[in-house]
Amino acid sequence: MSLVDEGLRLKGVLKRSPLGSLAWGAAPPVQHPWENEVVPVAPGEWVRPLGNMEAMMAYGGSLGTLNTVVAMWLTSKQHVPQDTVREAVVLLARRTGILQLCVGQRALRPWFRKVSQEHVPFAVETGDPLQTYSRALHDPYDMAEGPLWRVKLVIGDQVMKGSCVGDSGDGGDGSAWRGVLIVCVHHCITDGVTNLSLCQDLIDIMNSTVSVYPLPRPPLATLRPVTPALADDLLAPTDYLKALPYLVTKLMGRLILTYNKKLYLGGVLQQPRTSHARTHVLQRHLTATLTSKLVKLCREKGVTVHSCVVAAANIALLRVAQKHAEPGRLHTAAFNTTNCVNLRRYYPEGHSDAAGCHIGLEEHEQTVREEDGRSEETFWGFSKVLHSRLQRSLGPEQRPVKNGPLLRPCCLILWANHRLTRRAQPNRTDAHFMTTNMGDLRDLLPGVGRAGGPIEAVHLLRSVRLSRRAVTRRGEQGADSAGGGRRDKQEIRLRKQKSTRFYPRLTENSPDSTLDCLKKRRFLDITPDRQNSLDGILDCTPKNEYSLDITPDWQRSP
């Protein structure tokens, strides 16, 4: 497909009948070619219809949720003026198409529209960066007007708070400047890969600007145009038909039938009800030594780190359930896992670095036995079962792609849980926990200027807000509400820094973070589903904390 053809398709020029144009909101047939513009339309004009995943994310945005936030703790050997950071943000916005988009309703479906006027939501604050981070995580967007992003720079004496750099021995000693750059982008226009690409672009721009020596690379960010909904292009009409029976089962089972009894193991796990919840971020990571040992051990056993940690999480969840069941009653359980998958692996050549929301969901139900965690042999056997199943799903079956038709209708579950939350009623759920695995980040985010420079990232924190705003019956905006009760989102961190133990902590504040690793290493996060509400299961008080230890029996300290 030529550049002109792709630009036309991007703008929604679809060869359909008049009735189809009304339903799908096709643009007029005469359009200008792309011509190297990141958004090939005039301000205020329509760009293209949203894809399946983008539409679901945008609906979450209308409920005040699904905001992604990345914080970079930065140090520099020379002073970095605030105006330099602002100029870098402006340049990034002008060369990144997704940062010029908002969402509007056109005909019968949502469309991306270019914002009417350029606005750079940049602010400078002082104080605790983690408090600023939390506020940014909960700030909603005006989805119809945009922009769907914002950047905050935190400076002052407390900027290194929460960075964990003391664990690595780098406390910013000798640095002439330190700051925390918080980049917030709504999930309908971004994913984890795009988040980190934007962060690296900012580092490159700032280094090119403040360096006292001329750098070989011009001070420009990578040109990142808006791409078509590539994931939807991978679907054939038959895929929609094949997904229909599963969709009916999914909606009927979650919203009407008794699937929740199965999900909560006949009442052993408490089905949550709440009208208030906030996202609470907790950081956990592994030391460099433990990370290397874990990666090496998984390779020797023929599994990925992902499969190893998911196996451990399943066994840990079974143990939590056993503690609250009658003695000797619960020896096996079926747990549902949802994996967030980067769909760029399926895209045509030339789109491997496409900016935007290019993720899919892969889910499965696995029976976990008490014996799976009793010995090293049974544990690795269980890990191999999960590994083989996931490889088939990602490979020949391409389940993350085939599940695309389910995403738009599943907005009904979001709507239902939002209504239930307003009334503090028990919520419906899809899975016990979710995972996000971005693998090795060294190529995607080296954390230093690719052409050199004094500015580098010494710590990185990424979170996704999954709690939803509650609106009272009088139409007044209330406190933050976790549409499906409280979503507990913890991560297993693999990083080259000193650490505490290899487990997430559960608190009354219901953690909800997708905490990414430092610039150099890999991470895997485990996200117990919000409807699971493990803090309620453990019946903790606001001052209590409980640890969910996923260390195998044979590796526990006496």
UniProtKB/TrEMBL annotation:
State the InterPro entries in the record: Alcohol_O-acetyltransferase, CAT-like_dom_sf
Q: Which domain of life is it from?
A: Eukaryota
What are the boundaries of the region Disordered?
Answer: 469-491
Alphabetized PANTHER family for the sequence: ALCOHOL O-ACETYLTRANSFERASE 1-RELATED
Question: What name does this protein carry?
Answer: Condensation domain-containing protein
Give the species: Scylla paramamosain
